[in-house]
Amino acid sequence: MRFFGEASGSGEIRTLDGSVAMFSGLDYGVFNIALLTGPAVDGQLESRMRAISRYFRERTLRWSFWLCEDLLEPENRRDSRHMLAEFGMRSISHPPGMLCPALLPSVRPLPAIEMRRVADASTRGAFAEITSLCFDIPYLIARAVYLREQAWNGGYQGFVGYVGGKPVSIVAMVEAAGAVGVYSLATLPAFRGQGYGEALLRMAAHELTRRTGIAKFVLQSTEAGYKIYRRMGFHDVTRFAVYLTK
């Protein structure tokens, strides 16, 4: 998620006490992200939220908080929801965190798809457009994040899948902490249910494993992708709670 603090050229990544804030420079909450960097016990979550809230309030922008529930003691998880509401946050999703030690073979024939790495204006534009359409993100916001060449010069790698010369699917990956994180897997509505997303994900995963030697993958699943990920060998290891400013 550090990508969003670097992509637009007007953001930053700030390390706070027990947390990290990624400020995109854009007035769009899900691209202004805060995360805990370790367990929070004995009231630490509240103090960390005060620091995070102060950081973003100075920038007068909407922001989101992505909480891995395993970082809280079980008896404090329910109370955390009430406390976060007092900071003006509302829960918007609870995606499972999933791990795949090694991808399982496909259980069905997959369609042919041409994979291109995001590396020029055409692929950057395709990534932005598919992101906007599939994740209901304003087009100008998506362009501000994904169209800038420098955004793709770091470890965050994007891939676009083409069918008949048309971009239809995307996925992004980044290596961190001995695993490869999977982000933004999406397929245009007219091409869903045909295996293009899975085919692109497998091709990109193979490429990352070939380059890095890492075969372990992690992701936060959407409801739509959950069954596909299970078939591929992913299993639940934690749960996240995503909060957005009201």
Tell me the number of strands. 12
Question: What's the name of the CATH homologous superfamily of the largest domain?
Answer: Gcn5-related N-acetyltransferase (GNAT)
The fraction of residues assigned to DSSP E strands is: 25-35%
- Name the structural class: alpha+beta
Biggest sheet record: 12 strands, mixed
Descriptive terms for the model:
single chain; alpha+beta; Aminopeptidase; 7 helices; 30% helix
What does this molecule look like?
The protein is of the alpha+beta class. It has 2 domains: 3-95; 114-215, Aminopeptidase (3-Layer(aba) Sandwich). Helix content is 30%, strand content 30%. It has 7 helices and 12 strands. The chain has helices at 3-6, 44-57, 77-86, 121-135, 139-146, 196-212, 226-232; strands spanning 12-16, 19-23, 33-36, 64-68, 89-93, 96-100, 114-117, 157-163, 166-176, 179-187, 217-220, 235-245. Strands 1, 2, 3, 4, 5, 6, 7, 8, 9, 10, 11 and 12 form a 12-stranded mixed beta sheet that branches. The radius of gyration is 18 Å and the shape is globular.
Question: In a few lines, what is going on in this structure?
Answer:
By secondary structure, the protein is an alpha+beta fold.
Topology of helices and strands:
Layout: H1 3-6, E1 12-16, E2 19-23, E3 33-36, H2 44-57, E4 64-68, H3 77-86, E5 89-93, E6 96-100, E7 114-117, H4 121-135, H5 139-146, E8 157-163, E9 166-176, E10 179-187, H6 196-212, E11 217-220, H7 226-232, E12 235-245
Parallel strand pairs: 3-4, 10-11
Antiparallel strand pairs: 1-2, 2-3, 4-12, 5-12, 6-11, 6-12, 7-8, 8-9, 9-10
